[in-house]
Specification:
Structural class: alpha/beta
Number of helices: 4
Mean pLDDT: 93
Strand content: 25-35%
Oligomer: single chain
Largest sheet: 8 strands, mixed
Shape: globular
Length: 215
């Protein structure tokens, strides 16, 4: 059984890292079960292992942390649901690509609970939504905005870090970075899409869709 933890308030990033380090080590040693931790962080930027210095465009705006996960720069803050996913791939199949696909499908399934069509794009990390309600791109193509980010790390085939889904964050906070190194697309949220979704609504959707995505 996967243990679900939901933390109220804003969890400091250092505290989250320390918890994940301890729990992942315990899972790897067979001393603890798998865990998914739902939380929000205070405003901050994280740098993945592929982060480029030029993509941190406002380095003094919020604290910046080396996340040691895959990916580039990501924003976390109030109104964004972070799900730290500590799962044992020793028994779920040692296939990193398949694991990331399952995370993507999990997010897409949860968004579908609100009639939002999330999509993945080759060469772009995360989950995207089309925006026919917005002005098209300069080349005439339909605008696409990012609604969820994915970045994971494995140790002894146990995962940590995970996903983040924008419910109602301050979207201007993304302006201090080039999110995931992608300059020609925007960022959105469930509320920005006109949906009165709460954090509790999303949590229920994530829990409902987890088993069918990871069965």
């Amino acid at each position: 059984m996967v243990e679900w933890i939901t933390s109220p308030g804003l969890v400091p990033y250092e505290e989250a890292l320390a918890f994940m380090e301890t729990r992942v080590a315990a899972i790897a040693e067979g001393q603890a079960g798998e865990c998914i931790w739902l939380l929000e962080h205070p405003p901050l930027y994280t740098a993945g292992t592929s982060a480029r210095p030029e993509d941190l465009t406002d380095p003094d705006r919020f604290p910046v942390y080396e996340a040691r996960r895959g990916g580039q720069y990501t924003y976390h803050g109030p109104g964004q649901r972070v799900a730290y996913v500590m799962l044992d791939l020793n028994r779920r199949g040692k296939d990193v690509r398949r694991f990331v696909e399952r995370l993507e499908h999990w997010v897409i399934a949860a968004l579908a609970e609100f009639n939002v069509r999330g999509e993945i794009r080759p060469g772009r990390v995360g989950v995207w939504v089309t925006r026919p309600d917005r002005a098209p791109n300069p080349d005439g193509s339909v605008r696409e905005d990012k609604i969820a980010a994915i970045g994971v790390r494995l140790r002894k085939w146990v995962s940590f870090h995970g996903i983040s889904v924008n419910v109602e964050p301050d979207l201007s906070h993304f302006d201090g970075i080039v999110p995931c190194g992608i300059r020609d697309h925007g960022v959105t949220s469930l509320v920005d899409l006109g949906l009165p979704v709460t954090m509790e609504d999303l949590d229920l959707a994530l829990k409902t869709c987890f088993e069918r995505s990871f069965s």
